[in-house]
Every structure is written in structure tokens, then in C-alpha cells.
Specification:
The complex is a heterodimer of chains A (176) and B (295). Chain A is mostly helical and 176 residues long. Chain A contains eight helices and no strands. Classes of the chains: A mainly alpha (176), B mainly alpha (295).
Chain lengths: 176, 295
Amino acid sequence: MSRSETGSQDALCGGISLAEIVEQHWNAVYRLLYRMSGSAHDAEDLTQETFLRAFERRDSFRPGTNMRAWLMRIASNALFDLHRRRRTARAVPLEDGQARAAPATAAPAETAELGGLLAAAIARLPETPRLVFLMRSLEELSFRDIAGAIGTTEETARWHMLQARRQLLAMLDGKL
Amino acid sequence: MDCPKVQGWLLQSDLPEAGAMPADVSGHLAGCADCRGLAERLRRLEAAARALPAPPGAEAAKKAFLERLAAPAAARPAAGRTLARRVLRWSAAAAAVVLLATAIGLWLLSPGGTQTAEASTALDQLVDWNIEIADAGSPADRSWLYSAKVGEMKRLAGEGRLSAEDRDLAGALLENGERLSRDSDPVANAEGFTDVAAALVQHMGKAAKRGDARRLKGLTGCYSRVLQRGINARLEKLEAAGAAPDRDRKLDRLIRRHAELREQLTALLKEVPDASDKEIRRALALPAPRHHKGK
């Protein structure tokens, strides 16, 4: 599908255009993918890929359900596909449990230290607990939606959250 | 409930806030300082996560994506835009796209390569840091962003795992970061990013000569971002602020430098077997009778 074809479509889901969906959800999808990939370059590519896939699969969105959760599921799949391709190509090893360090980002001075430590700690989490933590704590998705996004049960999603919080508290010992 | 059960509940709860707790959990917390401490640390953890700053580049990437959605595929810069912007935007974007495509083609054919994941990450982070400083709203923010990360960036640039070539590029990015921190003039900033772009093209040429497609691909990604997010973003800022006659000479110089870079890229692309001469000319908007083989 070319970009011009994408842009020519006004309606995506329930009368909402792709452009409106991009406006509403781009930053959240980008934020998740940036924290997962540790690279602004990868985050940009994957975010574009997410919205193009969303357009292609617009029929799979059920009106009345959480659109952000649906987009996060597509984003997660795009991320997993990238990791799979890189593992296959043996270009950039990114195994579950071994994350690349995410670059710290700008922050007000008073919160920069804790924010920087937390960003670094999140980057060291294994992939699935990190994804669950980010979807819950940053995007405030329900565990049910998170489970749907990563293809597991709600109980397992909560277990990943437990692992993530436990490890983050250990890594930030004395800082919280 | 005992402590292990309460702590397990807290660690996997929706939000560890007192109002959402079952009575037996809140009853336990009322009498247990250890579990209350855990609940409080979790609350702070959630607050700190929500306070994480927005990552760099999200808004610019969204704007670019929406523009591409709205524009037909063959869209060209509108008439009336400044000469500098028209020349730079078109040549930079087109060259980068062709390079990416050809480099990926080569990469698939050639499994060898020298650029490590560490090198790629280090250069990516240095480019991000440069762009962050350049995008900062005020001189104070620029200075703060530079000071806050210069130590980490110097450590990345000096890592033993980086090759001599990558350390050279990292040095160029460190130097540009320092220049960006003390000068917010868009033309000067575009010149600084052009120095980085020139260094990247030089190393891309070396990688192409060695047939090192993986490294060429990594450097091309950096090059593309330096041009689009570094140079073009500065020129857009300049355009938004209105034309300034005293900057004409600097802009002329910038255009000449980019013409030279385009020549180098054209020569480089001719060494890549996947791109035909016709394709290169079309992508770089070169006129048909012009030849570069004698260079």
C-alpha cells in the first residue's frame, strides 16, 4: 500500500480518519516504542509501521473497544517482528532479558536524576515485563487490554508486572 | 493476610492506592510498617514513571508522517520557498532514501561487516543528543542538556569497543554538541550538522569501498537523521523566522557544500552495484547530460 493510497482514505474506524488517529495516539505509541527499543530512529520507523499496519487491518478493530490498546498490540507485534528480523540477520542481538540501554531524555532539573535512573532501570528489564510495565504505568491500559496486546492471559500479565516492579524496586533501592 | 500475600497483591495490583484495596489488605497495612513502606515505594515508582519526559523527536516525526500522508507521492516543494530549503531538502532526502535502499540490498547479499551493535547505539545516541540540544527552546535549556549528558557521551565516544573510524565520528558529534550548546543561530547550527554529515559521507565512502554493507547501512541511517532532523529542521526554523539578508552569504556557502556532498554521494552510489546510473540520476534530480565518471 502506498502512502498516497493511505492518505486518500478518510475513514478508518467508526468514521475516524487515519490522520485523526495519528494525532490522538502517535505520541503514546512512539513513547512505548522508544522505551522498548532505546532508539529514536527505531521508534520512528516502528511507529510509522504501526499506523500503516493499523490502516491495513482496520477491519480488525471492534468499535467500542479501546483503540489505544489495539494500536499497542500492533506496535508490540511490529517490535517483535523487528527483533526477530535482527536475530535472524544476526545484526543486532536483542534477546528477551537483555535490553539495550535507552538514552536518557530531557527532564526538569528536580526530577532529572530519578527520571534518568528509572529510564535506565526500565531499559534493563526483560522485554515482556518491560512492555507490561510501560503499558500499565505509562499508558494506563488495563491488565485485560495488556494481556490482549501481548497475547497472554490477564493473570500472566499481572505476573509480569510483579516481576517488573520487583526488579525496578531492587534497582532503585534507596532512591524511591 | 500475611506479609508475603499482601506484598504479592501490591506488586501486581492495578494501582497501589489505598482507595482501591480490599479490606483485608488495607487492614494489614494499617498494622504493618514494612508493607506500608512497600506500598509507598510503589506509589512513588508509578509517579516517577508517569513523570518520565517525552522522548525526543516524537512531535517532529508525527508532523513528517502526517505531511507524507497528506501529500501525493510525487509531491515537490512549493514554489516561492527559499532556494536554500528547496535545494537542501530535496537533495538530502532523495539521496538518503536511495542510499538506504541500495545499502539494504547490499547488506542482504553480503553477510560480512564491521559495525557492532555497540557502535551503532553509541552513534545513534550521540546523534539524538545533538538533535535534542538543537531542538531546545532556550539557550539555558541547550546549556543544561549539554552539561547533563556530556560526561556520558564522552564515555560512549571513548569506549574501547568502538573502531577508530567510529571514534572519529563520535568526536565530530561531541564537537558539534558543544557548538550547539553555545550558539542557537539556525544557520550556524546547520553548518555544524553539515560538518557531521560530511564526516559521515567520508566514512560511508570508506565502507562502500571495503564492501562493508552493514556499516554503510548504519552510517546511512545516521546521515539521514542528521540531514532531516539536524539540517532541514534548522532551515525550517530560519524560514519561519523570516529571511535575513545578512545570512545570504552563509546560506550560499551551505548550498555549495551540499552540492559537493551530493557529488560525493553520487560517486559513492556508483560503487554500489544495486543502483543503476539512471536510478541515481533520477533520485538525485541530476540532469540527464551531466556526467561524473571523470571525477
